[in-house]
Design brief:
This protein is 63% helix and 0% strand. The protein is mostly helical. Helix 20 packs antiparallel against helix 21 and helix 24 runs antiparallel to helix 25.
Length: 567
């Protein structure tokens, strides 16, 4: 997929934009703190994650009123029938949810089971009108908890009058791959082959290859591609690019290059094949090799496009080498290759991170002169820069201008606004933004909740924290290991050790292995408070988690593709 170009629905820049820009130039930002780097960089042809998200650490004295709820939002929060925050993840459903089929299933599945078979057995006797939509929503809610997800999948498959469609099978393949249950994942793919009727598609094999690559099983991912035709999927440039993209995303451009060399004579390539490699080499700053790839691209009669050049610009921006950025822009001009919105957004964001605020805002003017119209991602970056500097009034003007321009606020926009409010401890503003998302039917994701959870852990607002966990579940946002770690560390830092221990236990029970840093932090705090009983329990849980991890690794070595790749 190539980068987005101009929005055809937006053909002009309003006077409102010019007024806003003048206001920003006349009120230069005073400070800009370096954002926390994001560990996982998305292999997106649009914006890299370091442009999209930020997190600010602002130590402050926590409020001790854990039952406090902002008065203006009390009705909304209280409507969730909050309970003990230690039970929020385990049983987050209100009593009134019994009439809803999805909540009925989820209430059973959230009780925790040692195996998928136990989870399926617990659902026996549950009478539901199964539909594809219902099944997919349940799987989304448990997308980070493979035991209840697989248990529900097994149970639903056995129900009279219902048959899993390919999309549901694909979701289950992805969940099993995410949890690194590769033996079960391959069994699922084999089952899809047996069903026939085109159940296995490129989407299926894309999930398989991406999950294997994510787990560092590069050779197995490549072997899956080599044998892709036995599953009824074509070994063509689309599947090749998918594999290479997965390898590059997981920081293995070397493996992607090996795949390229192996298949370049047997599979007709396209420009995206070369762009994947260019991006892959640019990420670790192997720019000479990236240049050689661009030259080879031209030898194959493919002209480097805006994506190709933007890869280099992104690399130089990340290193704050703006002289090189200008050189690439000059090269693009000579080749009649115009920068697009993504290019400008990356440059503006990098300048802002480098505290070159005035120059960052000048990018907008440069865009306007070129006829390139700002999109949601550009505005999101501008909101980030202003919010980071505490210019919240200006942020609101940008939001108003987006509306005037007909640019829709997406989930990322709301996430950026929420993160900005949380970074400045604006509890009410942050929750109102979440409420606004609900009112506008804008679906939140994990990144919506992370800054909110951090803020209310820091302030010890246990009642609101419980509400947020419930809100996540009701919006089909599955809690993953990182969220549990956030809760454990946040509560641990503020003396809520019983709650921290409960979430730690919940984390292990869901099959997640806590990082040593999280475990050590909790143990240290428990020792400091002489909580020996709790300390021993946490130590036992960590040992259990490590044993589960070892067992999962051993099981994975029994999967068919592992044996095939090591034959």
């Amino acid at each position: 997929m190539l980068p987005r170009f101009q929005n055809p629905n937006l053909s002009s820049i309003s006077k409102t934009n010019i007024k806003l820009l003048r206001h920003l130039f006349c009120n230069p930002l005073c400070t800009l703190t370096e954002p926390t780097p994001v560990s996982e960089v998305t292999e997106s042809p649009e914006l890299p994650n370091w442009v999209k998200f930020f997190d600010t650490k602002r130590p402050e004295k926590a409020d001790l009123d854990e039952d406090f709820v902002i008065p203006s939002l009390a009705n909304w929060v209280e409507a969730q029938k909050l309970r003990d925050p230690r039970k929020a993840v385990k049983r987050p459903l209100s009593e009134t949810a019994d009439t809803d089929d999805i909540d009925k299933v989820c209430r059973i599945l959230k009780n925790g089971y040692p195996s998928p078979e136990n989870a399926a057995q617990a659902l026996d006797g549950c009478v539901l009108d199964l539909s594809n939509s219902l099944v997919e929503r349940v799987l989304r809610r448990f997308s980070n908890e493979w035991v209840p997800a697989f248990g529900f999948f097994i149970w639903a498959k056995a129900q009279t009058g219902y048959r899993h469609p390919p999309e549901v099978y694909n979701s289950m393949v992805d969940i099993l791959g995410k949890s690194e249950n590769f033996e079960l994942m391959w069994e699922m793919v084999e089952e899809m082959v047996q069903i026939g009727g085109g159940y296995v598609t490129l989407d299926t094999m894309s999930k398989v290859m991406r999950r294997l690559a994510r787990a560092g099983r590069y050779k197995e991912a490549i072997d899956a591609f080599r044998g892709i035709e036995q599953f009824g999927v074509s070994k063509d440039v689309l599947s090749l690019n998918t594999l290479m993209g997965a390898l590059v995303k997981e920081r293995s451009v070397e493996h992607a290059h090996e795949v390229f060399l192996e298949f370049k004579e047997s599979i007709p390539l396209n420009s995206q094949t070369f762009n994947v490699l260019i991006h892959g080499w640019c990420k670790p700053r192997k720019l000479d090799i990236a240049r050689n790839t661009m030259e080879e691209m031209e030898k194959h009669s493919f002209r480097p496009d805006v994506f190709s050049y933007t890869c280099f610009i992104e690399a130089y921006c990340h290193d704050k080498d703006f002289r090189k950025v200008d050189e690439v822009l000059g090269e693009m001009k000579n080749k009649a290759c115009e920068p697009n919105t993504v290019t400008y957004t990356i440059i503006m964001h990098a300048l802002g991170k480098a505290r070159e605020i005035t120059k960052a805002l000048e990018v907008y003017e440069k865009m306007k002169r070129s006829g390139c119209v700002p999109d949601t991602s550009f505005y999101n970056s501008l909101i980030f820069l202003l919010g980071k500097a505490g210019r919240l009034k200006d942020v609101q003007e940008v939001v108003e201008d987006m509306t005037n321009q007909g640019v829709k606020l997406d989930t990322l926009t709301h996430n950026t606004l929420i993160s900005s409010a949380c970074a400045h401890s604006q509890e009410e503003a942050a929750l109102k933004l979440l409420k606004k998302m609900e009112e506008e039917s804008c679906k939140p994701d994990l990144k919506t909740y992370a800054p909110l959870l951090k803020l209310f852990c820091r302030k010890k607002r246990m009642r609101v924290l419980c509400f947020l966990l419930d809100h996540m579940f009701k919006n089909d946002v599955s809690i993953e290991g990182g969220t549990y770690a956030l809760l454990v560390r946040g509560l641990c830092s503020n003396g809520k050790l019983e709650n921290a221990c409960s979430f730690f236990e919940e984390m292990v029970s869901k099959g997640f292995v806590p990082k040593d840093s999280t475990y050590n932090m909790l143990i240290k705090e428990l020792e400091g408070k002489s909580m020996e009983k709790e300390k021993k329990h946490v130590e036992k849980l960590m040992l259990q988690a490590k044993e589960q991890e070892i067992q999962a690794t051993l099981s994975a070595t029994e999967c068919p593709m592992f044996k095939m790749s090591n034959a």
